[in-house]
## 1
Amino acid sequence: MKIWQLNDFNIQNLKNIDIDSPKILSDDEVLVEMKAASLNFRDLIMIDGGYGETGGKPPFIPISDGSGIVIEVGKKIKKFKKGDIVIPPFFKGWDSGNIKENTILLSLGGKIDGVMQEYIVFEEKNIVHAPKNWNCLEAATLPCAALTAWRTIVTEGKVNRNSIVLVQGLGGVSIFAIQIAKLFNAKVVATTSSEERMVIAKEIGADFVINYNEDKDWWKKVQEVTNRKGVDIVVEVGGSKTLQQSIKCSRVGAVIGIIGVLSGGMADLPIGRVIYKASRLIGITCGNKEELESMIGKFNTSEVKPIIDSTFKFEDLPNALLYMQKGTHLGKIIIDFDLE
């Protein structure tokens, strides 16, 4: 079978090679033919060695998010059958509860080989069913970005129809955050960079959209559109240049999910304001299998589908990564293993 292997850090050291296909060796295992993968900026960091000791040491198979079709099951398998579309969770072994000390070492696409391989053997406990009526390309988008948004908004934020959610930009996590918040009938305030993207944000479901290039102090606009109540939940992906504004436009007791560092990793923290507002700043590192299944269950009750920016062939993984590196995409970048 074909796999992509990172022999040393840097995209140029990715090699497409052939190895023997795996076989089921235990009655509680499932053989999956992988059909699709989706990319996250985290994959670029892993390939560049940016996670240090917590990342993988080459050689390893990259990319965390994928989906495939069950083609063989062990004798003890009860939850899955041939033909099922399945997804491996981002973390192998984080089944429920809060993240633990060594959980970070269990993510796919590093210390544990990722999904860029034609066949993978999984234990039954390490896969979940894809949403109903979703194909493999769609299902491959869920393990990282969507679940990060879910844990922020649902697990930590306890979203409900009275909630107001602030979403920054239109990256993968932020797009899913808008979609998830609207599944709970919450109000969504989104920030983005242009008039064109403002239109897209509204099409996705945002109730109010702010152009942060026009409104530099956009926190004031957020306060205005929320009648000075502030927001209940913040999907904080910006980092150093957005955190203070997120705190300013949040209500007392708001949950601020710290997810990304797009504008820098070091921020001045207004400690007095945080104390006064009893702000809950929570670092979000994706989510667990139980949350993934709950999210999929919610998607099964809706018409929501992921937004896909572009699709590349299996052989074009390096080009897909270089395209993501430009940062011009809107929606998920997909690798279609069947695309000729």
Note: The first helix runs from residue 41 to 48.
## 2
Amino acid sequence: NAVDHAFPEGVSGGEVSVRLDRDDDHVLIEVVDNGAGLPSDFSLEESRGLGLSIVQALVTTELMGSMEMRSVGGTTVRVRVPVAMPRVDL
């Protein structure tokens, strides 16, 4: 989705980064792009896109997590999902 929506055809130099982290009881996923950004009137709660609706339902309903999106110099999506297993440091 980041590649398809952030960079209209013909745009070059786009970057998408994905970061995965964990605190004590949550997995944190962050996807950041330097693309077109979100429309000024965008609302995650009112979005009707199929792909975004599926991801939001999976994160919030199935995984009991949270999802937030913001647009500053591109788009940042942050997903936070609780995990039941204790953290094991290697």
Note: The two ends are 33 Å apart (CA to CA).
